[in-house]
Amino acid sequence: MIDLLIKEYKNKIDTRLDMLLPQSDKQYKSVVDAARYSLLSGGKRIRPIILLEFYKLCGKNDDCAYNFACALEMIHTYSLIHDDLPCMDDDDLRRGKPSCHKKYGEATALLAGDALLTNAFLTASKTMGIDFRYVSESIGYLSACAGIDGMIAGQILDIEDIFKNSLEDTLLMYSLKTGKLLKAAALIGVTLAGGDETQKSAAISYAENLGLAFQIIDDILDTTATEEQLGKTVNSDDKNDKTTVVKRLGIEESKKLADKYTNAALDSLNTFSGDKTTLTELSNYLLNRNS
Ligand code: GRG
Asked: pTM for the whole thing?
């Protein structure tokens, strides 16, 4: 059921993403090709789906939030391209294919990431059919969650590996690196739908808890899954000598912690009176995923 729903969403999101990037008939074809290659080569599309589901949960049944959902996926894909670069995690494989820099070279991959980040804001600004005050507020959330106090802060803490003296430090890094874009997804969904402050707080609580569960599962899969399953290099955390929750607690305890955060995320949904089936199934799917 959830697999089918994800597939339907994915088809619609991918069609829109394809339209939103330039075609590869330009003089600057290499960077366009690289951006299209990374954006359109798979991915679960979790962040756009969460945004669209919160929009629906707040009573909206139209397609007006799709541009914003695609903008978020562009930022996510840029972060993956940059994360794979030799100066960061140095990974050769992403979404089952050679990572962007392996296929197009480092300079082009760097620029493809920059292009996706910048085009995300162009895309979000072209949102139609929604009160411009909600669009503007959402652009603020997107910038804040992706920026220096958001995902970027998480990435530098991860790279420097200096503030991770305790489990709490590691969880803080997860909540920034992974949780912030999920927070953007949930919060923007509610904001674009004109949701109130109580709904915004519940959406943030859902995303913060889901983000922790999601990253813990990501760490577990890094040690237990195969390259074929994940479509990316495995044991990357060991290779890069990263401190993870799994290294601190072991697989069993880490799984329990991911369960706990998923349940807390699901509790936050009780604030909403609409149909929570998809978000509930999606959260459980993410907890039990093997890729
Ligand atoms: C600005 C130079 C520069 C780099 C930015 C911020 C950043 C690099 C990277 C973000 C860090 C990152 C990759 C966090 C991990 C989050 C995570 C678990 C990603 C995988 O998400 P999935 O499983 O991937 O949703 P798919 O492929 O399904 O979209």
From this structure: 0.96
